[in-house]
Structure prediction request, 674 residues.
Amino acid sequence: MRIAILAHERFPDGAKTATGVLRYGQHDVVAVLDREHDGANASALRRDLPETPIVASFSDLDEPVDALLIGISPIGGGFDETWRPDVRAALRAGCDVISGLHYFLEDDSEFRSLAEENGCELWDVRRPPSDLGVADGVADEVEATVVATVGTDCGVGKMTTTLELVERARERGHDVAFVPTGQTGIMIEGWGYPIDRTISDFTAGAVEEMILERGNDHDYLFVEGQASIVHPAYSGVTAGILHGSQADDLVLCHAAGRENFHGFSQALPPVPEFVDLYESMAAPVGGGEVVAGALNTSTVADDDEAAAAVEAYADALGRPAADPVREGPDAILDAIL
Amino acid sequence: MRIAILAHERFPDGAKTATGVLRYGQHDVVAVLDREHDGANASALRRDLPETPIVASFSDLDEPVDALLIGISPIGGGFDETWRPDVRAALRAGCDVISGLHYFLEDDSEFRSLAEENGCELWDVRRPPSDLGVADGVADEVEATVVATVGTDCGVGKMTTTLELVERARERGHDVAFVPTGQTGIMIEGWGYPIDRTISDFTAGAVEEMILERGNDHDYLFVEGQASIVHPAYSGVTAGILHGSQADDLVLCHAAGRENFHGFSQALPPVPEFVDLYESMAAPVGGGEVVAGALNTSTVADDDEAAAAVEAYADALGRPAADPVREGPDAILDAIL
Prediction:
């Protein structure tokens, strides 16, 4: 699928969805729309991004695309009215529009009529399907080994770790599927339920449904985790993924130097306590164990310092660890495969 | 408020909402509607229920009421069409209708027009307000001591324990408020959010909002718990209540003889493990400790056997315990007040 990604004024570092899709998506990204970086190239702005031209608007695209993907999400998840001309132009050109905003494009009467007139689809990734239900507690019955990333906090690299593991496992010849649980992961995979938006009674059920749908067609499922099992606001999402997936292997993700839950006053417990917490929570339902750790060292400039931080993290865990982006995920994969 | 409670063909044992409101609500219950027990009295059907006449339909009521409360919830939460004449008659008589069904009365066009014509309100208790948000992690800042019931499983008596504790604490002269989290509790209190129906990102936030709303006006808040922290389907709801409330004291509720999660193949962990699980999950956010236990012995016929079961439960917990219905909640309250 040929796509353009809208990321005005936030690209690259404020556009996690855009950079996630650029790095890990299977899409053919024709261009990024960013009026601030018109004429630049994504790979020049950040070296981990593929070569992708940046243009000022949808009408500046040199070639046709199948879809426009909204690659940014302002705080609150609203729709920025300065994006309307791009979405309008995309729909008039017969393109689908994919969005992870809290504001649903399908509820916008102009977009809905334009989509109908031009035979396009509006895909609001954050809208969970209405037929989700309660978990049956049977995710462990699938044939695949289920691996889940879990975290000490939000924003420590669970999605990136999961995607690096999937990519490298495939390179190593394994039959692996990715189970996304958040908007960026869903856009990358083109499938999945937004677990943070489900009704709380159905959180585990939505995850279980994904595991059952893919778990007999692959040797390994890699489930994208969310938040932290003791997060002051989001622990319910984490618990739902842990028990809904009944993962066999857990990979504990953490960010170097993180001391408090991001945006909260509460301190993170020490790393070994997280191992105990996840394993004792998993024991009655699924019985998963922490087999390795992933440390995000992106805030550590010096490579030697980063390597030392990873080593200290592995010591605290008593398990192998790596920074899957800086060092590659092989040390983690070796503990799983 | 004078009310009638609809509980056709399920009263009393299949009508948890009806019996909960009869036992613990502040309402003046004029009658129960149950076409199967027309002419009987609630207190004759079950000795723990107050004297309340039973009539066959709304039009058989001897005196006017302010509201009709739907006191049963079939599996799936649908609306039984045989109830329509009662709801219609109530609205035509100018009564409000209170419902905890998944099927929202407000979305029923006949009921909505009747309510408008007659100036009545339809209160769908299970519909969460649309303005809930993410928790700020600040529930511990309220002045009240926050007590939460937690459980080994669903249906072990968390709501009943909470309400018995509230009632007895008031009798003992304390300034206490009840914080409901489920439909029956909300109907009893006339206030509260249905935590199992919130968006999973907002589960803790909805609980926190209730704590902040009442936490500076009372000496104690008693929070109704839900499910179990290791429940195969609902652990996310439990985690959200634990971290959203940041309860100081936890009362662990259990049912005598319960070995598996109700309706699931997974075995319950031993009781001492539940104490560790709840305390280690609470430690980073709120720091609550299990101070006492409540054992539901309703399935044990013999009083001596029930007392022995409570004693064994207290030993396993290493804390005081009681069956709050059979023995009264004083032993539990003494550990809190």
Notes: Chain A has two domains: 2-124, 139-334. Chain A has eleven helices and twelve strands. The domain at 2-124 of chain A is CATH 3.40.50.720 (Rossmann fold). The interface with chain B takes residues 134-137, 195-201, 203-205, 229-240, 242-244, 261, 264-269, 273, 276-277, 280-281, 283-285 of chain A (CB under 8 Å).
